[in-house]
Amino acid sequence: MMRATPLGDLAPVKDRFTLVGKAALVTGAAGGIGRTCAAALADLGADVAIADLPERFGDAESVAAQIADRYGVRAVPLGADVGSPKEVDAMFESAVEALGGLDVVHSNAGIITPNDNADMAVAEWDRIVRVNLTGMFLVNRCAAGVIRESGGGAIVNTASMSASIVNRALPGTRHAVAYTATKAAVKHLTKAMAVEFAPVGIRVNSVSPGVVLSGIHDPIVEQMGISYDQFAAAAGSAPFSIPLGRFGMLDEIGGVVAFLATDLASYITGVDILVDGGTTVW
C-alpha cells in the first residue's frame, strides 16, 4: 500500500533547484530574453551553448564570455538559423561536442516585425512562420534526440501571451496576425511534444511572456514615434491595461525558465506558464 512521504524524508527544495553538472543550449541567446535565460541556467550551475544567427555570432561570443566570467561555467557561442534543418543539426552536433551532451534546451529564437498584419506580403508571413514555428519544431526534434542520450531532461519553449489572446493594437500599429498565429501554434506544439517525449523522460513546457522590456519591441516603438520611456509608462493604461501596472523585466522570465529546467519541475510537462503581469485575465 502506498503511503505519503513522511515530512522528515522530503527532499530539500534548495537541493533540487540546481543545474550543477548539467549542460544547456539556448537559441536566440544573443537577444534580451535569450541571454537572460542562458545566464539564469548558468547561475544554477549549467554549462551553456549560446546560439544565435550566424550574423550575430559576435554578439553570441560576447554573451558567452560574460556568462563564463560571471558564473564560472563553460559557455560556448554558436551560429545557426533555426529555420534551416541542416544548420540546426550542425548546431546540436557542435553543442554536444563542446559540452559533452545536453540535458536542457531552451528553444527561444523568434521574430516580430512592424509589418505583421492581414495585408502583409506572403513572403513576410513565410519568414515569420519559418523562424517562429518551423524553427521551434526543428529545435525540439533535435533536442529530444540528444537529451534522451543523457537519460532525460527538459525542453522549454518560448511562446507568448499572444498565444492566448490577440493583443490590443497599439496606436499607429495593427494586430500582429503572423506572430499571434505562430505563438499559438508553439503553445500547442509544446503539448504535443510533451506527450511524444514523455516515455523517454523528456519534459516539454513553454513560457509565455507578456510585454517584457527586452528590446524586441524597439521597431514597434520607433514606428509609433514615441520614446521607450513613454512606451514603458503606458503599461497600466489602455491598450495594455496590465493589472500589475508595469511591463515585465528580463530576470522575471529567466527565473521561470530556470525553474522548469530543474528537478523542482520534475512532474510538470505540457504546461504553458504565463508571465504577463495579469494581462490575459481580462
TrEMBL record:
Q: Name the Gene3D superfamilies on file.
A: NAD(P)-binding Rossmann-like Domain (3.40.50.720)
**Statement: the UniProt record of this protein carries the keyword GTP-binding:** no
Which residue ranges run through the membrane?
none
Q: Does the keyword Oxidoreductase apply?
A: yes
Q: What InterPro entries would the database entry show? A: NAD(P)-bd_dom_sf, Sc_DH/Rdtase_CS, SDR_fam
Query: Which terms does the record give in the GO molecular function aspect?
Result: oxidoreductase activity, acting on the CH-OH group of donors, NAD or NADP as acceptor
Q: Please give the superkingdom of this protein's source.
A: Bacteria
The record's annotation in Pfam families points to: adh_short_C2
Which terms are listed as keywords in the entry?
Answer: Oxidoreductase
What protein family does this chain belong to? Belongs to the short-chain dehydrogenases/reductases (SDR) family.
Q: What is this protein called?
A: Short-chain dehydrogenase
What organism does the record attribute this protein to? Mycolicibacterium moriokaense
